[in-house]
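Predict the 3D structure for this chain.
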Amino acid sequence: MKYIYRIYQLFIALPLFFVATILTAAFTTIGCIIGNGHFWGYYPGLLWSKVTVHLFLLRVNVTGRENLKKGQSYVFVANHQGMFDIFLIYGFLHRNFKWMMKYQLRKMPFVGIACEYSHQIFVDKRGPSKIKASYDKARENLKDGMSLVVFPEGARTFTGHMGKFKRGAFMLADELQLPVVPLTINGSFNVMPRMRDFHWITRHPLTLTIHKPIYPQSKGADNIKAMENESYDVVMSGLVDEYQGYVENTDQ
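Done. Predicted structure below.
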C-alpha cells in the first residue's frame, strides 16, 4: 500500500495540489484587490486546505469548537509540528482569522503575494520600527470578530515535541485584552516533519483540539506571563504521549 500511495501522490495528488495552490493564490490576490479582503483572504484558503487534506487522503478529527463564541475575536496559539499544521487550522478551525508569519514567507512564489494582499501579518524583527509596524497591523485587524493565529514557537519542531513559547502573541492579547485559545495539533509531524519537506507524505490521522479560552485577568507583565504559561501547559496536555515533554528547538 505504501508504494501505491506514493504513485498516487506523484501522479495525482501533487499535480492537483500545485494547480489548486496557484488558483487559490490567484483568486485570493485578485479578490482582495477588487473586493472584501477579509472574505477573499479566508475562504479560498479554507477551500484550498480542505482540498489538500482530502487529496492526500488524510483523516481529520476536530474537538472543542463548542468552546468558541460567535463574533468574539481570539488570539489562537498552536504547537508547530509540521507543514500540514497550516492546512489543518486553515481548513478546519472554522473561524475567520489572519496568520502571523515570518516575513521571509513573503518570498514564496504565488503564496507570498496572496498573503500580502489578504493582509496576513508578516513579523519582521529587523529593527524596532518594523516590529512596531507588525503589531500595529495586528491591532488594526483584530476587530469585528476577526481573530489571529500564531505559532508561538516560531519554528517547526525537529522531534514532534514542543520547544519554548515566545511572548509576542501574549503581549498582543494582553494589550488588546483578548482571550487566548490554545490549539493542540497531533499527527502533522507524522505526516510530514520538517526533515522530510518535499519528500513522501505518510498517511496519518490529523487531530486539532480547540481548548477553552484563557481570559486576561489583569494587564501587564504578570498577565502576559500567566497566559503564556497556562497556554503552554494546556497545549502540551493535548499532545499524544509520544510527544509529551519539552525538547529544545535549535531553530528558535
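The chain has a mean pLDDT of 93.
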